[in-house]
Amino acid sequence: MNSTLRVTYYAVSTMWSDSISLTHPSVQKYMVENILAINENYMYDGYLLDYSEMGTIRNDAAATSRFNTAGQELAWSISNAVDIVRNHTNNNPKLWIWDDMVNPYHNAHDEYFLANGTVAGSWDGLDHSKIGVMTWQLDDGGKSLQWFAAKGLKQIVAGYYDTGNGTMSGEKDASEAKRLRNI
Asked: In terms of Cα–Cα distance, which of 112, 101, 109 is closest to 134?
């Protein structure tokens, strides 16, 4: 069933500040504590995992000794985050992720900002039975939409807000998406 949902979303995220280790035990503990607190107070139907515009990946000793590429670290972290949410909620919420860090037509490629190694392969952390993708900044002629659809991933088209006219951008992207499945 295809339907249209319009959502406005604003967020501030740092890119050039200090980075954290995605594999550090304190990060894992923090993630578990947060989802437990959220689940105790709210019963959300879904969560958006904010893996977006991550300028530094695989820049600590633990990550470089464990993963050969930034993409492998990111894939592990995404899969781990999905498992944490699934294992610590009792209503089987829908999970979504911004597409940019798992999209080879966006940021998941060689020489991405301060990532230590290629970000390619980060999409290996996406299990289509557990998570969907919020695709945005679709100025690639539909390649991103087709690429994720071919992987069986459900998608929400999120018009890119920074074009000067987010509404027009969203409508253009939605028009492109109408011809594909899983969107």
From this structure: 101
Tell me how far apart the terminal alpha carbons of the chain are, to the nearest angstrom. Answer: 9
* Alpha carbons 150 and 136: distance in angstroms, whole number: 17
Cβ atoms of residues 101 and 54 within 8 Å: yes
CA angle, corner 84, sides to 38 and 61, nearest 5? Answer: 115
Q: In angstroms, rounded to a whole number, what is the distance separating the alpha carbons of residues 183 and 181?
A: 6
Digit-coded pLDDT (tens) for 73-83: 999 999 999 99
For 4-23, write each residue's pLDDT tens digit: 655 544 333 444 455 568 88
- Domains recognised in the chain with CATH numbers: 25-177 (3.20.20.80)
Cβ neighbour number for residue 109 with a 10 Å cutoff: 15
And the tokens for 128? 């289509």
Asked if residue 140 has pLDDT above 70, the reply is yes
Neighbours of 103 (CB within 10 A): 24
